[in-house]
Amino acid sequence: MNHDDGYIRRLGIAERRSLVMPAVISVIALFSFIYVVSITPEIIGKELSFYKVLYAILMGLLGACLYLLYNTLGVITEQRISVHDPRNFVRLIVGPIAGWITFVLIEDAPGSQKLWLPFLAGFSSDLMVGIINQMIRAVKYTLGIEQPHESKS
Questions:
Q1: pTM (2 decimals)?
Q2: 3-class DSSP assignment, residue 12
Q3: Quick count: other Cβ atoms within 10 Å of Cβ 105?
Q4: 56: exposed, middle or buried (C-beta count within 10 Å: 0-12, 13-18, 19+)?
Q5: Which residues of the chain have pLDDT under 50?
Q6: Which of 94, 100, 123, 146 is surrounded by the fewest CB atoms within 10 Å?
């Protein structure tokens, strides 16, 4: 999905605001959730260190920034985004949130996965959507809403 500068100029104030509102609400929700978990760690069943949470958020932000830089330079060609596209701001919000969510999900993972998965989550929206879809599928299987597809061997 390519967008040229003409597309960006055609975005009205309402469209630009429609991108900012979810971003602001997401930031408020992220910090509210971090605060609640910090005062009552039994909510997620583990205590999270402030520095680990900060690390995950910053790695997600770093991944989002690197994606935007690669996109601007033309290294990533499948979805070229203009520098003036207001969705860049939203990506800078989504990256840290994705990094933090991934960190919370994989905190007990072995090895160095804890170190690089928040970065990858901030860089790749496809990765996060894939992880979320797999989690939804697993919950559906567990609740009996959907049956697992039999593998063809």
A1: 0.66
A2: coil
A3: 15
A4: buried
A5: 1-8, 151-153
A6: 146
